[in-house]
Input
Amino acid sequence: MDRRNFLKQSIFASGVTLVPSFLKGMELLTPDQLSGYRNVIIIQLSGGNDGLNTIIPISNDIYHSLRPTIAKKTDQTLKITNDLAFNNNLKAIKELYDQGEVSIINNVGYPNPNRSHFRSADIWQTASNTNEYLATGWIGRYLDANCQNPYEAIEVDSSLSLSLKGNIKNGIAVSDPNQLYRTTREPFFNSIVNQTNEEMLDENNQGYLYKTMLETYSSASYIQETSKIYETNTVYPKSAFAKNLKTIADFIISGLKTRIYYSSLGGFDSHVNQLNSQDRLLGIYAEGVGALVKDLKKNDRFKDTLILTFTEFGRRVKQNGSRGTDHGSANNIIAIGGSLKKAGVYNELPNLSDLDQNGDLKYSIDFRSVYATILSNWLKVNDKTVLNKSFEKLQFI
Amino acid sequence: MTKSLSDKQIQHLYWRAGFGITSKELASIRTFSKEKIIDQLFYESKQSTPLSMDLSMLEKNQKELTQEEKKQFRKVRNQKLYDLNILWIEQLINTKQVLREKIVLFFHNHFAVRLKNPRACLHLNNVVREHALGNFGDMLMEVSKSPAMLIFLNNRQNRKNSPNENFAREVMELFTLGRDNGYTEKDIKEAARAFTGWNFDKTGAFVFKKNQHDDGSKTVLGKTGNFRGEDIIKILLEEKQTARYITEKVYTHFVNDTPDTKHIEKLTDIFYTSNYSLEQLFKTLFSSDWFYKASNIGVKIKSPIELITGISRQFYVTYENPKVLLYLQRKLNQTLFYPPNVAGWPGGTYWIDNSTLMLRLKLASVTLNKGVIEWTDKGDMPEDTLMKMEFNKKMKSQIEKKVKATPDWQQFITLLEQKDKNALIEFLIQPQLSNGATTVIAQLGETNTKDLTIELLSLPEYQLC
Output
């Protein structure tokens, strides 16, 4: 059956009639609309990935002298330029790089960096200043300002990150569309949803609970019904991370009306014998992303996709006493996409001879400039209403 | 003349000042005057039960440990943090001092600290408990000097000629005046100088390191002198804005998410003129007529801790593996001793997203009835849907398998005074039932008390108090 027919059938066969009629927005993208429907996948590497052993300043003497036992040797790397190289576990990323589909942005950070994992992750997720505590995430505020439905931003995980929490809207957390669907279809909840009417959705807390329940209910059926349309036959690695990326690919190719996807890979929080664990994790990352891109390409969706990878901070240049690195500040980030405006090494390499008082890299690009660029240049929305401030735009997309 | 309270109002008091009320408790105070009910609530919290656990194995100098010993040390330390969490939530579930514990929970969020140091966390928690119905000024001073706060907000790194402003900033922004309320960046810088030299010794006792202290003249909030940290705390307490900020936070936490300026101003006056007596503040609040108004009843979203504690108390639940309590806190986004940051949990609708809401709605059936909500809406459902649902019922989610909880149904049901539908609704649900929920519940025949209870607790309305 071709996709168009399948779409038609599944709409009529689905249980969408159960959803109260005033809940609009149950549309899905037709194949014609699908092409050109841009989306972003945000990948968070949790725990502070050491950027200097990810994308390596291989010719830099300071790098080798400050990291006598954990610096990567040339034969453990994949050459980018004479001065820069990928960790050799990033083979899949290197292949994309060679095709002009990767942009490496160096020295990304923010003023007065915080070196606590959870605080710095909060700062990245909320796009706040160092001494500002926001209860909403930048993707949540994107939803507030631009979207009708919670499923326009989806986190493929069992719980929702602060990133996707807005003032009036939240994104949807889903790791398994069928499981989410089943939970909402508990017979008792079914009955309640069927009895829910508009006057129950007041602006008070009770109304908010009913509204969230209803949105979860309709999003669950929307996501479950729509994502059935396509199931990939691309082979993904066995990791949980790759499984999440596969789910994202299913969603994108099925035509979910979702702009932002979010997923994370944890475990980067090491302080001792860093090499083994970091190399292993980078391998999981690269193989997962490699499969995802292959899948998207096969279905002609890669040109509309941007994949941004970040971590809450980089690591100190100098290694510590136990073959690891301590918490640092500025770091590189990787943007992958089929329609990059500027691929390659986007800006100057980190300056290892001009470190801050902790011995950490200084930032030259505010991470919120990256967000602003994605919001404005890629998703074509007003970045200032989301970030509460204007940030300089970059030119990678 | 003394006015008495309706059942609904007594339940309201107990949900806000505690973690709900059992039938037995309600029956024992129903005939009391309002004044006597409140007096008893305060009387029961007169005593304070500090948390206590043996942490002597952590009194080691980490620098002297070998690599392997350090690893072991971290393992024990993390284990003790979990134990501390369980210790407190079990105290919340079992305590008679509900008001005191509820106020500790409030200040746990006000002086929000997240550390991997169980000794410091335990100590801070007990400091707050000791002063929970005492004087806020004393609490603030002792909290500021506690190892937990000195570590968390980097005051040990705050030294003469190399200031660290973290504590000075947060003490104004979060603990006293509130953000942008009458202080400047200059005030923060000057106050930071006054806090230099604050530290603690190996036993955790506060020490003032004179040689690290900047003893020059400072000007803070218009006052000038050779201030030390204690002087800054006193200056902040002299500001009425501090009383106002704390009162407003208490009001939105204990009464209504939407502040009422008139009520807050009155409470502020009492709090300020009593020199920050927390007992006076809370007694005035819980005695006010407006506190019992219908517009304040059933309008707050229960925090995850209130929800878990409330169900556990009401149904005398025992957990085969208490670790489940930790698991539930995590899944519902509120883990004790683990606030998101120094600003604490924002509360209100922040608790609710699609995954937390579905778990919240399932929580009663999971803890009280092995995950089953007995319910079939046979009327308008096709046969195959019904079959699918029967099948789904048998498929246990991860959570249902994990939470091995045993409620004491017999005790709950025996103690219920009235078992008819309306009485049960009135007793278990604080807000007015929505018209949708009313319709659903009306469809029920004369079902058994247990099933009806589970259904009521699975309504969105039960999330409110």
